[in-house]
């Protein structure tokens, strides 16, 4: 194949970013016989002075994605992984400050939680008493998310989670809605409300001079508020439950300015058992068909008054 | 459970949308013994005057998501599915014009292509000669995408595709890049370039008064230009190939103003066979390890000069 | 289309089975304000006198798969779901005893576990003290499995689980293996051992006259033994760990005669950080790359002496 | 951690196998400017004299799974990949004949098909006329499967495919079935019949002295017969269609002795549009809801008379 002459520029380059996605890094630390795990999936996206690589293929400004992968591993060893957010901050700062053509770095991290096997004899110190300080089972609930963006001046940190599946088996109704010529839905006075939570929350912290939040504590508390709001809200609609989940976070967590949720309404339909002479009554305990598709999808942002909305509208692609 | 009093309003509602996601509708049409399939996955997102349902749970403005699902099925029968884009336009117009509280509708559609079984005897009329006009095999390559947004005045139509996997087995190199203390990558003079294309393109058409594009023809041609640009570009970097794919569309398809691609660099690493006394040379035909993760991720927008960028930056969530 | 004459019989029918797969049934029971969930995915496979439906398309012996689905829902209401195994026994007996052409029924069940939200105030009675007795979060670890087969005379019950991800961060080595001309692997003196457990165990119970095991207690205990064996075995090879997991079940659970495991060796490779002047030493806490593919796959059966092996050899399709 | 003494032997080891699963190997060959791709996912499972590694952790008989991976890559270079079956035969023979403790090898291969981009100018020689002989798009339909088992004496070759999605939009009915107290299904006189084919077929070839089949030609023809039987059978039941698919292969392909299919009945339900004043009539072209779960699952073996059934009963795990 003959190498062709480089192409001309008939169309304009817009926003662009590049980096290594999904670097799977596991950091083990040892505290005597007691080990600790941080299990991350790190994606790097860099932007800056990158016109030439698009227009002519010149890589003179391109730090290879392979290098961004190596940096993730090296930083995990050199600086450890105190929290996903902290790790993202260290990485983003490095890329923006060490490479002149790079003006902006965004680090996205998925974190998988592990818990100890056989902690029954644990003495409250976090050290298992039974010699299994190095044995773990993956927790398996939500995937924790962290996103750090840095442009050399301001920080934006958005934390979150996905795939946290929750259900209220009562305490939910759906009535009084609009009807048009395509409406056949029956009102529900006592329904199951189930969803798989996808949420993001943005921190007010933007400046190195400010004290940073305790990222681990903030995550644990935010998750707990979200779950409690879901459990304790008598629900007239999933929108209302969503708003309560967001509002409770804003009310209780001063470090957070904005929350966005994408909540599928995971329909649990009462099965019609009348043809078989059975009454499928909720009060008595009922049988439901858990449907896959289609599903309602309820999405909204809840903001601290006076704050700007910056989390993108679509957390999923459907 | 006691129904609690409705909550107060300590936090502000931001952008919100709701609707039924992933309604799987298959529309068969019969032209004598020759049948035609449109196989869609339709997601509806409605926005408007929806404060109350979030703050108090009042559904007085809420058309149920179940109704949006019914509407999809009814429209598929009543108006047919000429193209995914046309179908989305009909649906979006309906929701915005028929429901006062709804100010904006966005319809997202995935389309799965089918081809005929046993068309060997086809006579060019599209009618199979052998009595199998009702038998199909799913094409299985890309998923076609269409997104229609309507606010009562302007239309925005974004088409696209995902999961179109392509490979150049030569005609790609990667050299002359930046090196820092974390760089170990060797230059590649003849590498495999493979990716799974995720692309979106926005049409200039915004107004009912303008003639609408031929959506089916536009898709077929755009896909073809994209593939040809991938195949015919000698690649110094995946960024350059991406730009050529976008630029070729802008150059050849007047109806399209903006293109965005998200291209994973699906690494095919040359296996080191030296320990076994084998030279794994590309010129001679080589053996590659197709890696899963991590992967480079290259994303960019290509715009017609003078046009505004409106396609969101992140087509995927990593 | 003309309905053709029915085909002749040039080839012989072998083993066959049919039924409705993946009926998603959720059974809620109410104990005052405290609710309980059983969340199942039930697949029915029936066999018997089914030659004609294959040879000629006569459905005279075919109970529709839709009916087997209805039966799952009706039984969930009428008899409840004490355990997946018990539910499977009731269903299998029904199909074999109520339909003359059906000679054998196999019921496969996946079960998803839920735990309560906000049980901190629970008083040990299983009743949450705080009014959230109807709020749940999906546990998210393993999927529990049950398979019941009945031929009108004997029962076979196989329980199990899949997708239980575990890790030992030390206590594992791999040395002293065979070397041939394709061997390049370095010995490992202190490695991470991680796997995603897929296991099945067969009960000795086969006869209605025998007392049946306590299925729930048996599952909980078997899972615990499996985890403890994984955690407490110093591992010279994953084969040895697998055997200890199976043997410990056989040793402690008299009701179980046979165990089979399929254990991927989920490789965690020590990252080479030497090029960056960093020593990535395990004793000091190390950084690993968690690889996706390829992976070792270790599979074996462990049997109570004198018992027959009946669990199929391949639990997965790779 | 103290290394414990090696465990005693209270339970018996049964069938066991091990090896590297899912080695992703891509073999490119060059015929001038025209390249050819073989894209495989290879899983090796070895059995033999392996008691000690399970009982005591001694690896003295264990060829590392890493070595089996290396062997896959080295063989792909040294011997090429003429067909997946041939490649599996070479590998299986190598492991069994070169390692004394290994008595049996099973090689499972998934193959992904690619087609050329821009072959419009091709001249029938297989060489594209337009300089894009190295550019490919992944075909995306079925995954081709091959499984080779060797015990040092006899060969067993099973080929197959999965995820081939097909649909007849008419020419199918379902009537005359058994009714019991749980039956509510209405008879269907003109329904959509759709499935995602999972099939396996076993060759009569077992002996190196016999001439081996042309594996590529056999696959292409078998796939074609399967599709034609699906398309051309007026279907009274999916069982009947399945049998015709298998029987046609047995009738036309002498090299094949046994076929097994697992066919989900991918339900396309006619949507009830009567509430909206629309008649959803099949004769006129209709609208269907394509359901995910549950689905009928129809599985059967079709045998050449006098041949033994050896393909396992369950091709999937549900």
From TrEMBL, chains A, B, C, D:
Pfam family, one: Uricase
This protein's record includes keyword Ion transport: no
Role: Catalyzes the oxidation of uric acid to 5-hydroxyisourate, which is further processed to form (S)-allantoin.
Record keywords: Oxidoreductase, Purine metabolism
UniProt cross-references to SUPFAM superfamilies, sorted A to Z: Tetrahydrobiopterin biosynthesis enzymes-like (SSF55620)
Record flagged with keyword Oxidoreductase: yes
Entry-linked NCBIfam families: urate_oxi
EC number in record: 1.7.3.3
Gene: pucL
InterPro entries found in the cross-reference section: Uricase
Identification of the protein by name: Uricase
Pathway assigned in UniProt: Purine metabolism; urate degradation; (S)-allantoin from urate: step 1/3
Family of this protein: Belongs to the uricase family.
Catalytic activity: urate + O2 + H2O = 5-hydroxyisourate + H2O2
Alphabetized PANTHER family for the sequence: URICASE (PTHR42874)
């Amino acid at each position: 194949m003959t190498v062709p002459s480089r192409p001309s520029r008939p169309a304009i380059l817009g926003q662009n970013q590049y980096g290594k996605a999904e670097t799977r890094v596991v950091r083990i630390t040892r505290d005597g016989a007691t080990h600790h795990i941080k299990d991350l999936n790190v994606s790097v996206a860099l932007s800056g002075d990158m016109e030439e690589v698009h227009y002519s293929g010149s890589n003179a400004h391109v730090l290879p994605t392979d290098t961004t992968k190596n940096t993730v591993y090296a930083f995990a060893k050199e600086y450890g992984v105190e929290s996903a957010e902290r790790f993202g901050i260290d990485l983003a700062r490095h890329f923006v400050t060490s490479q002149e053509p790079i003006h902006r770095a965004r680090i996205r991290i998925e974190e998988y939680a592990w818990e100890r096997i056989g902690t029954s004899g644990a003495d409250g110190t976090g050290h298992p008493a039974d010699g299994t300080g190095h044995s773990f089972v993956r927790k398996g609930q939500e995937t924790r998310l962290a996103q750090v963006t840095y442009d050399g001046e301001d920080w934006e940190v958005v934390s979150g989670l996905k795939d946290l599946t929750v259900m209220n088996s009562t305490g939910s109704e759906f009535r009084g809605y609009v009807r048009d010529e395509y409406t056949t839905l029956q009102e529900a006075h006592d329904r199951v409300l189930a969803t798989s939570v996808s949420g993001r929350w943005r921190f007010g912290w933007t400046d190195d001079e400010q004290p940073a939040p305790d990222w681990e504590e903030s995550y644990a508390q935010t998750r707990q508020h979200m779950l409690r709001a879901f459990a304790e809200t008598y629900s007239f609609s999933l929108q209302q439950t969503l708003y309560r989940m967001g509002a409770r976070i804003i009310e209780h967590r001063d470090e957070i300015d904005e929350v966005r949720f994408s909540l599928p309404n995971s329909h649990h339909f009462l099965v019609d058992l009348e043809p078989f002479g059975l009454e499928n009554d909720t009060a008595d305990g009922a049988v439901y068909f858990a449907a896959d598709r289609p599903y309602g999808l309820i999405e909204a942002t809840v903001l601290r008054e006076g704050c700007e909305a910056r989390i993108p509208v679509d957390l999923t692609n459907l």
